[in-house]
Design brief:
This protein has about 260 residues and is an alpha+beta fold. Helices cover about 20% and strands about 45% of the residues. The strands form 2 sheets. A 9-stranded antiparallel beta sheet has the order 1-9-6-5-2-3-4-8-7.
Length: about 260
């Protein structure tokens, strides 16, 4: 199966073959999430609200899973007031989803955290690749890419070219360029770039150009597919929040009245 979206899968008999009920397997999957520091999105209010967090600990003896405290205070209050939570995470090409009842505040290693009871079942689905969203036309994300001034040396004087982001995921971005003004080539490495995400903030990133293609409806433009290189955890968290926010807005627009 090819489930790529980051949102909760709806209840369906078709998903029964992908449910995991073994306590041993569930504990192993949760601990793997914690050890890898995978980002986990917690949905609440019938999936209308969400918060991005990480799993800090699995306490088998207390039947609890402890998560990092979301930085958004408003989202945290809604999360704590919700009667049901749905957690969604990805490990490689595998999508994991589980539900929990009321969350409570707690402390982990002296820091504030939240906890829920360990799930009795986990949905485990294979996905194709990182979920990708097209940036809004009204407020597109942009990327500042440096290039040398009067020299080809990377350590020489530089200026920045502001490029429009066509789409992005937590693994990469697609940039729009015009070769006569600013050309990128496959295999090129770009350091000290700045990705501006409206409503989220600016991220310092490094890119590797993986492919450059002609834009179908504009032969003068190029679509440059770029891989994000060694993205720090905090930057990855911010990027995931942006992806979730854009997809949520697009779903509301597309929803039937």
């Amino acid at each position: 199966m090819g489930h790529t979206h980051p949102f909760p899968e709806p209840d369906s008999p078709d998903l029964e073959p992908f449910m995991v009920y073994s306590r041993v397997e569930i504990l192993a999957m949760l601990r793997q999430l914690g050890e890898r520091g995978n980002l986990i999105t917690c949905y609440f209010d019938q999936h209308d609200g969400f918060a991005v967090t990480v799993l800090l600990a699995v306490n088998q003896e207390f039947e609890e899973a402890i998560f990092d405290l979301p930085g958004d205070t408003a989202a945290l209050q809604r999360l704590l007031a919700a009667d049901e939570l749905v957690f969604v995470a990805f490990v490689g090409q595998i999508k994991l989803q589980f539900r929990a009842r009321k969350a409570e505040t707690t402390h982990h290693e002296g820091k504030p955290a939240i906890r829920v009871r360990l799930p009795r079942e986990v949905l485990r689905l294979q996905r194709r690749d990182s979920f990708r969203v097209r940036t809004p036309i009204a407020k597109p994300a942009t990327c500042l890419v440096p290039h040398p001034v009067g020299t080809t040396r990377n350590d020489g004087p530089r200026t920045y070219e502001q490029l429009k982001v066509l789409d992005l995921s937590v693994g990469g971005v697609a940039l729009l360029t015009y070769p006569e003004r600013f050309a990128l080539t496959a295999g090129q490495a770009l350091r000290d770039c700045y990705l501006d995400l409206p409503g989220i903030g600016q991220l310092a990133i490094s890119l590797t150009i993986r492919h450059v293609d002609v834009v179908p409806d504009n032969e003068h433009a190029r679509r440059c597919g770029c891989e994000l290189v060694r993205l720090p955890p905090q930057a990855r968290l911010m990027l995931q929040r942006y992806v979730n926010r854009v997809e949520a807005e697009q779903r509301k627009v597309a929803a039937p009245v």
